[in-house]
Fold Muramoyltetrapeptide carboxypeptidase LdcA (Peptidoglycan recycling).
Amino acid sequence: MDAPRYPTKPKPGDRVAVVSPSAGLPGLFPHVHELGLRRLREEFGLEPVEYPTTRVMGADPRDRARDLTAAFADPTITAVLATVGGEDLITVTPHLDDDVLRANPKPYFGYSDNTNVLNHLHRLGIVAYHGGSVLVHLGRPGAPHPLTFDSLRAALFSSDWYDLTPATEWGDEPRDWRDPATLAEEPVMLPGEGWHWQGPARVVRGRTWGGNLEVLNWLLAADRVAPAASLAGSVLLIETSQELPSGTEVYRILRNLGERGLLASFPAVLVGRAKAWDFDRPHTVDERRAYVAAQRGAVTRACAEYAPDAVLVFDVDFGHTDPQLIIPYGGEALVDAEARRIAVRY
């Protein structure tokens, strides 16, 4: 595999694109979006530039692709941030102009359904960044989470190695965006219990690949995942969404990766802390623990069958829970099971 191609980073005062290649939720929740934009200006010193479909729900995939391509083509734009996820970005990426993207690589930040774009850029040889949603993380109710903002600041402005830190508190119970008054209230948080390590005590260093597990399943079905040989030695990132897939479904998706020959390619697997609460499934704390245990068991079972020598690390804060650490996608990661340390190079 070629060396990772890290795009040039922005500087305070630069213009950055704010796009909605997936869902145009800023149009439904402008108060959350405006809070995120204000923090982007005040906390990071960056000037957000919106594109025509940023606040449009149900925009044509070709129009969304046109906006994303235009953001990469604009020489005055130095980074691209997705506002939020969704569920149909897989219909957008075929309309991107890959020649433009290759000729104008820029740091792209997104997660969840944005796994489609992250994977697309990875196949073009461009390092992107898993995390940093404008609505969810920049627009967090109450106050910015220190871990999220420290990680995002480092990912935006530096190219150094960065040690990830286990969260001392975490949450998966967001405030209701439909009520603007809730933006003043801190989210419900629970005590953190650190990372959970499994597998051999060894050190793995490699490029990252993966993302939201449900989206990876779609990408497999659409035949948009690189061959196993090209991903060999990578650190696999997996996290699950607010749709709360069952442990059985998690196992089956990973089994599909195994049958394709992919799972055996990864010497280390980082598993994002599982979100276990949503508005239509308001689980108790005990129910959340049971859900997380079932998901952990599913990952453990699949890896035991297809990647028995892999280092596994659970409850890393890079998924659909709060806080969120930024992970370079296609960039370098160090997973040190001897020192119980995870570092990434931004």
In short: The mean pLDDT is 97. Residues 285-306 form the longest helix (22 residues). The chain has two domains: 15-163, 169-345. DSSP finds ten helices and 16 strands in the chain.
